[in-house]
Design brief:
The chain has about 375 residues and is mainly alpha-helical. About 45% of the residues lie in helices and about 0% in strands. The protein has helices at about 20-35, 40-45, 50-65, 75-85, 90-95, 105-120, 135, 150-155, 170-190, 190-195, 225, 240-245, 250-255, 265-270, 280-290, 300-315, 330-335, and strands spanning about 120-125, 130. The longest helix has 21 residues, at about 170-190.
DNA sequence: AAAGAGCCCAACCGCATCTAA
DNA sequence: ATTAGATGCGGTTGGGCTCTT
């Protein structure tokens, strides 16, 4: 026996790095059905080559239905600053004051925005309050930090009106669609893998805190209500080029949705995400950047459709059912992808540097 | 257009704390 | 009371993105 604590998992056996949509889907699907009583065992049960800690982190910070994405409001930021003054770096405690916000997110916003912003504030006489220095409160962004290039973004926090909307919208939608498709099909097909698991009924235990409130999957739900399982107000954020460039997986998934134990399928799905060439990625980004202004954002959907057609041709997949035929007129396709009851919450503060955009994908409650 | 610099954030790591046996 | 395993927490970082030159 070696000294020290045993690692939580065999590092050589687990995948690291960004999560693919297929992995996300697996995790969400599994937790919906079984909850997360045991993070350590979850990856194996769900067929994920991930450390339990990684699954937990992914779920809590990203996939959890009640996670609130989007830019922090001025009020939230001020509250964070105040709480930090009293609590220090107790991110989880600070986060507890912001339902839906994660400690990681607050920690990030502190380290990237607030801490720097405070550096430009000077203590205001005796009141203890902080007041922006006159130089900072200036509307000009050109004089401050002249040598700091992108540090100007800090003060651009005050220029929230310049909303940028970009390519990731599509992936967010794709994931939601995929969720919905899988949810329908998962429960349309057998649940044999669920039955094999011990205490799959854990997800039906009414007081099981490990199961999120929406995850009480009612297999008796008609198809047209299953989509509501994902009507949580969290949003899906994508940050990798790979993910951005592989939209429309919902149509692929619609062909055949296996159980989470069907490794072949999931491996295939993972593999689909590496099909696109770098050239296509770059082209896609160029096109997307062209369209990254309000009002033309969803022109990108056309590109998605093109990509999907290409993919399906390559794979010999049939057109998806339920009116998702690929030869739909483009405007029809767009209207499908952006249901009219979807509320897109355009961020009030652009993430000037990150290129991250957040949306509330699901109809507001 | 390309390269470099800087920024952002998702995810990792390791330690702390909790819990059950 | 002790111990091992599981989970929580906070610090850190790598990769991708945007902006500037």
């Amino acid at each position: 026996m070696g000294k020290g604590r045993a690692p939580c998992c065999d590092k050589s056996q687990v995948k690291k790095g960004p999560w693919s949509p297929a992995e996300d889907l697996r995790l969400v699907t599994f937790i919906q059905k079984h909850g997360h009583e045991n993070w350590r065992a979850l990856p194996k049960q769900a067929g994920l080559l991930r450390c339990g800690k990684s699954c937990r982190l992914r779920w809590i910070n990203y996939l959890r239905p009640d996670v609130k994405r989007g830019n922090f409001t001025k009020e939230e930021e001020e509250a964070i600053i105040k709480l930090h003054q009293t609590l220090g770096n107790k991110w989880s405690k600070i986060a507890s004051h912001f339902p839906g916000r994660t400690d990681n997110e607050i920690k990030n916003v502190w380290n990237t925005h607030l801490k720097k912003r405070l550096a430009f504030k000077v203590p205001h006489s005796s009141g203890g309050e902080l007041k922006e220095s006159s130089s900072i409160s200036s509307s000009s962004s050109s004089t401050i930090m002249s040598g700091g290039k992108r540090n100007m973004a800090i003060e651009l926090d005050d220029q929230w009106k310049h909303v940028s909307v970009t390519k990731r919208t599509r992936v967010l939608e794709d994931i939601q669609d995929l969720h919905m498709e899988v949810t329908r099909d998962e429960f349309r097909t057998t649940n044999k893998e669920a039955q094999e698991l011990p205490s799959s009924s854990s997800s039906s235990s009414s007081d099981n805190s490990n199961v999120t409130n929406y995850s009480q999957v009612d297999v008796s739900l008609p198809d047209d209500q299953m989509g509501s399982l994902f009507n949580f107000s969290g949003a899906y954020v994508r940050n990798t080029l790979e993910e951005v460039s592989k939209p429309e997986i919902q149509d692929i998934a619609a062909v055949e949705i296996p159980s989470e134990s069907d490794l072949d399928f999931w491996n295939m799905l993972d593999g689909l995400y590496s099909l696109q060439t770098n050239e296509e990625v770059q082209l896609h980004n160029v096109e997307t950047n062209k369209n990254s202004s309000l009002g033309v954002e969803y022109n990108g959907e056309v590109e998605n459709r093109k990509w999907l057609r290409y993919l399906e041709n390559e794979l010999g997949l049939e057109p998806a059912r339920d009116g998702k035929q690929q030869n739909l007129p483009e405007d029809a396709a767009e209207s499908f992808l952006v249901p009219e009851n979807y509320q897109f919450e355009i961020p009030m503060k652009p993430e000037v540097n990150s290129g991250m955009e957040y949306y509330h994908l699901w109809p507001s409650l």
